[in-house]
Design brief:
Arc Repressor Mutant, subunit A; 3-stranded antiparallel β-sheet; about 10% strand; mainly alpha
């Protein structure tokens, strides 16, 4: 069902169509945890590495807010890196609680992958059936 206030033609309307944002909503925190598990990093570095997950357009302010939230929840910790030239940088690393949180996410993603695969296969079987 499309939004009755939408001015778009039904074929072009995105009011009720899933996009990357809706599917990946809430995916930023576990992605940040994964990146930090691979290698402790500062916020600016993380913004560049998010591209691997299709999150290159993530709001930098939102990234830092999520890092603050993850730190407040005890999933990451930070320290100041004063080595090198330039200002000190806050470097984040995953805690044991963060690793457990990420383990839970991976389990949920695995279950969702299986459900999505079943959905896709079922849809494809109907599509093949109706096109014959």
């Amino acid at each position: 069902m499309t939004d009755p206030n939408c001015k778009e033609d039904r074929r072009n309307c995105r009011c009720h169509h899933p996009g990357q944002g809706s599917i990946l909503q809430g995916f930023l925190q576990p992605t940040l945890l994964l990146l930090l598990l691979e290698k402790p990093a500062h916020g600016y570095e993380l913004t560049g590495r998010l591209n691997d997950f299709g999150l290159a357009d993530a709001d930098p302010g939102g990234i830092y807010r999520n890092l603050q939230r993850l730190e407040a929840d005890g999933f990451i910790e930070s320290s100041w890196d004063t080595t090198g030239s330039g200002p000190a940088r806050k470097v984040y690393r995953v805690t044991l609680d963060g690793r457990e949180f990420l383990d839970t996410w991976v389990g949920a993603l695995s279950r969702n992958r299986d459900l999505l695969q079943a959905f896709i296969l079922r849809y494809q079987s109907i599509d093949q059936f109706t096109s014959e």
